[in-house]
Amino acid sequence: MGITIVVGNFKGGVGKTKVAVMSSWELAFKFKKKVLLVDLDPQGNASTLIARSLGIEELNKSIFDGFQKGDLTDSIVKDNEFLHFIPAQVSFKNLPKFLYSNFDNEYEQITYLKTLLQPIKNDYDYIFIDVPPTLSDYSDNAMMASDYVLIILQAQELSLEGAETYVKYLQFMVDNYDADLQVVGVLPVLLRPGGRVDISILEQAKDVFGKQNVFKTVVKHLERLKSWDVTGIKSNDHHDRNAHNLFIDVVDELLTKLKLFEKEGKYNE
């Protein structure tokens, strides 16, 4: 059954979508794992990047169609063997209205994605969920549907506060709704590698979350990652390869942490 991971932080613009997409990409094409990327953000940035990278010119499917039908099967884009994705469209902004109109029970509202993913989890090794950086029905459904959360920490104070708030809200979901997920780790994203602010925030994160929970691999601010938003993900030159190698390292460390969780059920205290 696929291990489901939500990539989160309650601060926008910290690189969540790029990490979700690139982790899915490397797991699929480098590690040959079967991966499903679920775009739970109505802006659909993850969907656009994946489609552009795979040469898909038009997306005619939407996660909201699956939510309305009560079945996500027909919403999955399956243009290759290893990486599938469920795209989001702007219409998905109506999710809250849909949930409140169709479910009187709050628990059913926040576990609807979990219910829809259950029949297809056995088809995948890993499922990644990209969410908007808000306290919302989107984040509630993502948390309730996931086994783990990968927290993205950009090296700035507001991002650290957003990560701390995310963990507190996660605990709220565990305490009040029996959410069954844990933090697999905190992945640092640096604005200026070697900068004093970046180093300071990174050290604070180790104090807050525990040194063993902060990834040793650090995502540096690579211009090539920005250019892929326009061109799609490429592998044409050494700059492309450097960016791919960085996320291969991220995935390697992620898989190591997941194995530790699966073996022990928790981090060593």
Q: Tell me the CATH architecture.
A: 3-Layer(aba) Sandwich
Please count the beta strands (DSSP E, at least 2 residues each).
Answer: 6
CATH fold topology: Rossmann fold
Rounded to the nearest angstrom, the distance between the terminal CA atoms is: 28 Å
**Shape by Cα distribution:** globular
CATH homology superfamily: P-loop containing nucleotide triphosphate hydrolases
Q: Which radius of gyration do the C-alpha atoms yield?
A: 18 Å
Which class in CATH terms?
A: Alpha Beta
Assembly state of the chains shown: single chain
Strand order of the largest sheet: 3-2-4-1-5-6
Low-confidence runs: none
Portion in beta strands: 5-15%
List keywords for this structure.
Rossmann fold, six-stranded parallel β-sheet, alpha/beta, 269 residues
Short description:
Helices cover 48% and strands 13% of the residues. By secondary structure, it is an alpha/beta fold. The model has no long low-confidence stretch (mean pLDDT 89).
